[in-house]
Amino acid sequence: MAAEIEIRGAGPGDAAAITALIHELAGTYGEASPLTAAYAREYLAVPGCHVLLAERAGRTAGLLSYSVRPNLYHAGPTALIEELVVAEEARGSGVGGALLEHLLAHLATSGCAEVSVTTMPDNEGAQRFYRAHGLVDEAVLLEKHLGID
């Protein structure tokens, strides 16, 4: 029997686990993230910035980071999913879906008007995943990297 997935909000003591998962994500793209545990703690201290952690058998199996901010068009809060990472050994076990469903339920009951997520155009697996959980193609995100990494 697979270990039950537990979802909880991250705190400052989870900075090392958050950092490790973000580094794992970057590594899957052949990149390196400049994230440090100190910055992860700073992120968690910013109002509106949140990280959900998924744990299985006492080990961190994944994370979902998101921010909630006021939105003029909706005249209320909206959320942006920033990162969804599942540890390699936990992929395909429902961790990502559990994190996303937990977030969607929380946002629906907290008065959030909308949730958005972006993914790379060629990441068809992520697009299928988000669509399977009710997210739809709604907008195009344009970005410019400013050399601040």
Mean pLDDT, all residues: 94
CATH architecture: 3-Layer(aba) Sandwich
What is the percentage of strand-forming residues? 25-35%
CATH topology: Aminopeptidase
Work out the helicity level: 25-40%
List SSEs in N-to-C order: EHHEEEHEH
Level-1 CATH class name: Alpha Beta
Instruction: Supply Rg.
Output: 15 Å
List unreliable stretches of 5+ residues.
none
How far do the termini sit from each other? 42 Å
- Provide the domain count: 1
**How many separate helices?**
4
User: Could you state the CATH homologous superfamily?
Assistant: Gcn5-related N-acetyltransferase (GNAT)
- The secondary-structure class comes to alpha+beta
Global morphology? globular
Task: Walk across the major sheet and give the strand order.
Answer: 1-2-3-4-5
Largest sheet: 5 strands, mixed
Number of beta-strand segments: 5
